[in-house]
Every structure is written in structure tokens, then in C-alpha cells.
């Protein structure tokens, strides 16, 4: 089962809408239910725009410096909310009737699929108990990037157009839902036309390729081997799972049994082997494509992978002596890394039951027996991307584990004055932890270079995995925008008293409503600051001090053997950024 | 250096007559295996995976010995070696496989004779690791 992506859900919604349009039977004459489903559609599409809005803190639209694309996004969202309100006024009170009409059923299906798409995007962000929001996956930064904002705004505009088309179609068939006393539909139409920036192919690909932060279930590896397509699917799913598991590891460094020296040695070995196998396979492709323009890219990638492999080997060597208070050899990370190694090996080597332990004298496949170039490249790119993410997470986790004093070395390896302590292991000293961190820093840097080389190959070849390259680019380029650190209580879609008052007055002008929203939000900010200052003036001052920067906890804060509930706060609150937003 | 080390450790394993001597010689066998397989892995030949995983299994055997109360106190880490003495991969695999086979036999025997249960467990675990190393190096794992 392949991982569900945003694009798949949009396609499902599209199919429902098309099926409804093809419907030749009598037009539904249940205006209440029609209005309910159209309202759902409009609200769901409006919520697509929440993520870029709340993560970039865009609320004040009337400033002279507001980016036109941001303004279009804000106005479109507001127009959709107003449209939803308009439909809402047509919904009768009382129980929701069962939908029997085929036309309505398809409309409901489309709204369901769109809502699932919205939920999928929301999985990448978590709300902490204190109301702050935190990234839950490597995709979270993509959701603030310009390519994503452009693509999702265009998508929302397209769906707004769909809603308007539907309404017009129903009107032409005499359905009474089309009553539009406030002119709300014309506002929405105008907003759609103002969505000027049309997404390019890459932006659309990026949006469509966003998966859920919840990884798909694991596919068990059968003893007898798997056909190539299943191997590739298994690699894609395994990589997704590995990315997901490793993303949360740094938060667990101080207490989890899954943080273990043997497991790190194990995963470093997997990293080295994935790099080696990728090198081997690319060398085969290079021989295959000899003389073609892709040669230079392949050669660069092979060299970068060799460097990464050497760095991973040094990582393996670094774990020869150090260990942790948890001795586990098998953890969720090693299980996924092993599965990735096994499947990548079976894709490349000429034995369906290849394992690293049974790899002696097993040759690589002949070119004729190898899966198509794009398939192999996708598998290698996907696996290497997951390994690179694992390297980044390992560096953060090791740093945190060192701070928590969870890494030890055998006492035999230190001078007698220390070894006189009757223990077999003692805490690692800074002169030994330094090389360990250096080794992992090198692994991260070399792995990043290798994955960039593979990104180029994937983009040039147009493989399905190119979305990983696009996501990396988008996440890197979003640094100029305000980073995500807002509070859930500050979500811009929550109408305040002024905006509610305007709505009750029947105001449908999106500009007026947006200004009311901005004033409401500023009022909430001011009240929150006043409450903080009244409750704890010292705390407020401390939050603005440099000590509040994102640094790992020092040794004094560490309690290595105390089991504490893990904090889900992956990103500390950046108060300054929040206020700026 | 590699050939000399093999001969020395093999002689020590053959002549080991008590638990500390067996554990000490087995420790050196594992350490030598780790160092040599690491050196071959660095060359990134077609047998990269085999050397990488054989080295890891050797580390497990070595660490098991470290937990035995009967292990000698002067266990020393074998220095990393790049001097393979011109020994080819096939020959090195054969030599190391024979060495760890001998170590596993001696460790099994030591496990039977050991009075302390922790020594028994350590010897058995180390013997299993030695057999795994041998299986990987001979392609029979």
C-alpha cells in the first residue's frame, strides 16, 4: 500500500465532482442539504490556506509592503469564509437528513476528500499542551515555503471556481440555493481572479506529493524475496517510516531505551551500506548511459556517495568503544534501516534472498535484469534521503544524549587513576565525545552533499522521487520567511468580536472583514502580553533574553535515569518571532 | 603483521588451559577480526557488506567477553591495522574464519567448565558471535 499523498486526495475529490457533473438525472431540489455541502467545500478549501497563514503570521493585509501573493491568499480565504457563511444561512435547523440523491452524494464525497487533504496537511504540525505548535515531520517547513503557498493558493482558487461553477449550474437548472442576496459569490469570484501567481509544474508537483506525517504500515519482508515493483514500494514506505521515526528521536534522547550505542553503531553500518550499494548501482547506470549528458551528474553522485560512505564507516568505528546506558541492539530505527538495506540489496544483487550476512560472492545483477533506470534511481534516491535524515537526527540525538550524560566508555580505556573506580564503564569525557560529534557532523555534511547530487539526478530524470528534492529546496528557501512558532490560540481563522460583529451586520466585503480580523488579533496579542506581564514579569523578561535561544539542555539540566514524559515540543517557542508576526 | 598476529593468537588459543587465558585469547581473536575486516571494508570492494557485518559480529563477541567476571584485567584494544601484508581477501577470509572457529570451540568448552553463570553466559554469547563471524566470512551464514 503506497503512502497517501495530498495529490491522491485531490484527485479523489476531482473524480467525485466530475461524476456529479456527468449526472444526467433530475437536479436535486434539496436546497438545505446542497447548501450544507457547498458550505463544507468552501470551509475546507479556506482551511487549506490556514497553514501558510498561521505559520507565516500573515494577518495585517492593508500594509503597503504586503506581498501581492500574500494579499491574494488572504483575500481568497476571507472570501471563502464569507461564501461559507452565506451558504450557512441557507441551512435549515434540525437533524441532517441521509443523502440519497446521487448528485448530492458526489458533492459530499468531494467535500470528504478535500477535508481529508486538509487533515493530511495538518498532520505535519502538533499542538503542545501549552498551546504552542511544533513541527511533526521534515515536511513541516515546506508548508511555509513560497512554492507551497503559491501552489496551495492556486489550488484553493481552482476549488473556489468549482464551487462557483456548481452554484451556477444549479441556478441554471432552477435550484433555489442560488439566491445570493449579499453578493457573496461575486466577492469570491473577484478573489479567485486576484490569485495572480500561477504555480509552475514543480510547485504543483510539490503540493501533490506531500504525504501524511503518519507513516504507512510496514510491509513485512517475505523470506522468498519480492518482485522489483514490490521491492521499490517497500523501499519508499520503509524510507517514509525511517524519516518519521528518526524525526522524533532528539526529543527522546534523555530518557528513551531506544537511544542506544549499539543501535547507533548498527544504523551507521546501514548508512555505510546504503551509500555503497547506491554507488554500485549508479556505477552500473553510468556504464549503461556512457556518453550521454547524464554522465557528469552520475559521476558526481558516485563520488559524493563514496565520501558519505567513508564518513559513515568512521561513524561505525566511533562506536567501537562508547556505549549508552541502554544496551538495545534492535530499535525501531535499526529495524527500518535493516529493512531498507535488505530491499536495496535485493534490488541490486542477483539473489532474491540476499542479506548482508549472506552476501559473499553474490554478484550484482546484469543490466538486463535490473529494473528500469528511473525505478532504480527512485529507490536509491528515496533510501539515501531517509539515511541523510537519519544522520541529521542522529547528530541532534547524540548531542542531547551527551548533555544528558547517557554515553559511557569502558573504564579499561582510560588512565588508571580513573579506572581505579570499580566500574566497568565510566561517563565519556569531552576529549572523547568531541571526535564522536565531529564524526557525525562530517556524516551529515557528506550525506547532504550526496543527497543533493541525487536530487539533481532525480530532477533531471523526472523520477517520482523528485518531490523529495523539491521539498528540500522549498524548505531551504523558506528561511527568509518568519519561522513557525506561533500559538494555537493565535490562529488567524478564529473570528474575533469585531469580525463577528461585522458578519452579524451582514458585511460581505472581504477587505473590511480582514481589517476587523487584524484588529481582533492585535487585541488578543495585547491582552496575552498584559496577562503574562501581570502574572510573572520576570518570566516575560527572561523569555526575551539570549538564554532562551535554541540550545540543547546543559548537563546540569539532565536527569539521565529519570523516566519523564516526553515533551512533544519539537521546537521551542520563539517569542520574538511570534510577536513580530 | 596480520599473519604474525594470526599465528600468535592461534597458538594462544590452542594452549589456553584456563578461563582467563581462553577469554584473553578469544578477545584478541575478535579484536584482530574487527581490525582486519574494518581495513578491508575501507577498500569498498564487492565484499564491502560482508566485511562490515563480520566486523560488527566480532564487536559483539568482544563485548560479551568484557562482561565476564573471569576475563583477565589487561584486555587491550587491538590497534587499527592498515598493514594487511598483501594478503588477499579470500585468504584473509579463510584465515579469520579458521581463527574464530577455533575461538568458538574453546569458548564452548570454557562455557561448560565455568563455575560462574555470568562467565558461562559470556562464553556462550561470545561463541555464538564467533560462529556468526565465521558464517559471514565463509558465506554460510
Task: Summarize the structure in words.
The complex is a heterodimer of chains A (581) and B (141). Chain A is mainly alpha-helical. The radius of gyration of chain A is 27 Å and the shape is globular. Chain B has 5 helices and no strands. Chain B starts with a helix and ends with a helix. At the A-B interface, helix 11 and helix 12 of A face helix 2, helix 3 and helix 5 of B.
What keywords describe this structure?
heterodimer, A: 581 residues, mainly alpha, three-stranded antiparallel β-sheet, two-stranded antiparallel sheet, 60% helix, disordered C terminus, B: 141 residues
Please write out the topology.
The complex is a heterodimer of chains A (581) and B (141).
Chain A: H1 6-22, H2 31-48, H3 50-56, H4 68-88, H5 102-122, E1 125-127, E2 133-135, H6 146-172, H7 184-194, H8 201-208, H9 228-247, H10 249-252, H11 261-288, H12 294-318, E3 323-324, H13 332-348, H14 373-403, E4 407-410, H15 416-419, E5 425-427, H16 430-461, H17 466-477, H18 497-504, H19 510-535, H20 537-543, H21 575-580
Antiparallel strand pairs in A: 1-2, 3-4, 4-5
Helix pairs in contact in A: 1-5, 2-4, 2-5, 2-6, 4-6, 4-7, 4-19, 6-7, 6-8, 8-17, 9-13, 9-14, 11-12, 11-13, 11-14, 12-16, 13-14, 14-16, 16-17, 18-19, 19-20
Chain B: H1 2-15, H2 19-42, H3 48-66, H4 89-113, H5 117-138
Helix pairs in contact in B: 1-2, 1-4, 2-3, 2-4, 3-5, 4-5
- Sketch the major β-sheet of chain A: 3 strands, antiparallel
Q: Strand-residue fraction of chain B?
A: under 5%
- List the secondary-structure elements of chain B in sequence, H or E: HHHHH
Number of helices of chain B: 5
Shape of chain A: globular
Task: Find the structural class of chain A using helix and strand composition.
Answer: mainly alpha
Largest interface: A-B, 31 and 30 residues
Looking at the structure, what is the overall shape of chain B? globular
Summarize the structure.
The complex is a heterodimer of chains A (581) and B (141). Chain A is built from 21 helices and 5 strands.
